[in-house]
Structure formats: structure tokens, C-alpha cells
Amino acid sequence: xxxxxxxxWTEQVLLCLFQAGQKRDxxxxxxxxxxxxxxxxxxxxxxxxxxxxxVSGGEREHVTEQRQLSAEARMSVPRVAGxxxxxxxxxxxxxxxxxxxxxxxxxxxxxxxxxxEAGFFACDYLSxxxxxxxxxxxxxxxxxxxxxxxxxxxxxxxxxxxxALAKSPYVIRVLRTLLYMMYLIHLNTCAYYAISKYEGIGxxxxxxxxxxxxxxxxxxxxxxxxxxxxxxxxxxxNELEYAYMTLSWLLGVFLFAFLIGQVRDIVATAxxxxxxxxxxxxxxxxxxxxLGLPDDLQRRVRxxxxxxxxQKKTL
Length: 315
Fold this sequence. Notes:
The protein is mostly helical. The chain folds into 4 domains: about 5-75, no CATH class; about 80-165; about 165-270, Orthogonal Bundle (Helix Hairpins); about 270-310. It is built from 11 helices and 2 strands; from the N terminus they run H-H-H-H-H-E-E-H-H-H-H-H-H. Strands 1-2 form a two-stranded antiparallel ribbon. A hairpin with a 2-residue loop joins strand 1 and strand 2.
């Protein structure tokens, strides 16, 4: 049966069905345009020809070329969950951390000095090279969205990726929290030394007393004691020092609140499975008691539940 005969036969059947329905429903429309049915059938014919492979030579070559280009593009795009991409994100994150720490360190402690300039310049050029390679070789080929936005924050993306791939994500979260805390104390250290230089090194008991080789270590120790509210520091003597101590105490409160919240979430996530198991066992025991079952049977049920959790970590 040719396609035209099939279309004509289908059109007649549909018209008969429509007329029968129209007799039952007098409010229906008067007629279905025949050309509409025919155009829909012709559209189906074209789709069937395309699906069956009966396309022109030029169109087939175009489709083949597009498939090859898409395959090459897929091969050239690194997998965002692969080891290569995550390792590269680690390198970019290290360079990012270096710039975050070194900018304030060099601006405050090494201003006007020529200490270790060659080492800092080498790290600067290496970081710039890593950023350039990241923009040209990786970021230009990564195409994925996160909450409807293009992903561009490499440092935060690295922690999310390594948290999802690591066998012990709780350790990664603790290290990330400690890293944030140490960086804030580092900024407080640079601020304390800048105040000491502004007022004069050793000008009063509150500021830094001197010693270029151990300046950062001693200032970091002072900032750490201030942030953790350990105390036994020299009392401030002017408004600037009072403002610094007030901001340092506020920073310490924020650090402890942030750290306690992070640790609480980490512990809750780490023990979530065991907590749910304990709740399920308690609910089962309460149900057994309501049923009035013998104590020996209840004991065996508890032993079986605990054994199942110990072996399979699930119930």
C-alpha cells in the first residue's frame, strides 16, 4: 500500500469518526478541513523519511560533519569530575591561596626591604602562568552551570569537587574551616604590625617591640591570643589601639561561632547514619513492648538489628 493510499484511507476514517461524534454532539464544529489532515500526514511522511535514512547527500554530509565536530568537542573538554581536572583545580587553588597570603604579608612586613625578592617574584610569575593556562586550556572549554550561573570561582569549586570525591569528606571540611580561621588571623596579624609601624616599633608596651627576623611569628602569636580571647596582652593606650582590640575580639567571637557551627555540622553528618539506626531500633523495641512479646524475643531482635548495622551499616 502506497503512502498516498494510506493517507486517503486514514483521512476518510477520521472524517467518518468525526461525523459520528458530531451527531452525538450537536455543539461540535461543522467540518474538519481535509487539507489540515493531509498536511499533518505529509509532515509525518517527511519525518519518517528522515528517521529511515532517506535524506539527501548534502544533508547527510552536514549531519556527519556536525557529529564529528561534537565528538571532537567532547574529547577536548576535560571531565569536571576527573582526576586531571581536580588536580589542576588544586594547583590553581594553591596559587590563589599564595596571592591571598602574600599580598598582605609583603605589603606590611616587607615594604621597603629587599628580603627574598627573587623567591616572591618566581612564585608570582608561576601563579600568573597557572592562571593564564587555566583561562586558555581549561576555563575556555568547561561548559556547565551551577544554579543557573556559569561556574567561575575555581577556589570554591575545588573544595566542592574534592569534598564530593574524597573518601573522608569530614577531614576536608575540618581542614577548610581551619584554613579560613588561619587566614583571618593572618589578616589580623598584618593589621597589628601595620599599627605598630604607624605608631612606632616599641613606642609603647602594646605595639610590637622589635626584631625583624621574628616579626611575623610574634605578631601572629599576639593576634592568635587576641582572637581566641586567651588574654594576658598589654593594654591599649590610645583610640586606635582600642579600636583594634574591639575588632579583634569581635573577630574572635565570629571565629569561635563559625568553628563551633562547622564542627557541629560535621559531627552531625558523620553520625547521622548511626543516629537514624538508633532511632529505628528504639522504635522497634517500643513496638515489641506494646505487643507484649517475651523478653527473650525482644533481646534477640535487638541483637539482630545491632548485628545487621555492624555488618551492613543499614537496616
